[in-house]
Design a protein that fits this description.
By secondary structure, this protein is mainly alpha-helical. The protein has one helix and two strands.
């Protein structure tokens, strides 16, 4: 017998309707996707920081200078 906890209430998985089980699977799948996207974002942020540091060095600004634009400023490429 499997138990699932939803909003601090425990439910027996076998007692859920098929529709409820399908929704539960969708929530679990979505949670996994969010976790995957958060890992990807962390990787991209780490890479960006490394590229920005390399660019600072190339421009002679040193690693402690910021390449972050002020809030609301658009950077055109």
């Amino acid at each position: 017998m499997s138990i699932v906890r939803i909003d601090e209430v425990e439910y027996e998985l076998d007692h859920l309707t098929e529709e409820a089980k399908a929704q539960l699977l969708s929530v679990q799948h979505t949670d996994q996707k969010i976790a995957e996207l958060q890992r990807d974002l962390a990787i991209a942020q780490t890479a960006r920081a490394s590229y920005a540091n390399a660019l600072r060095e190339l421009l002679g600004h040193g690693a402690d200078a910021s390449l972050q634009p002020p809030a609301g400023l658009q950077v055109r490429h």
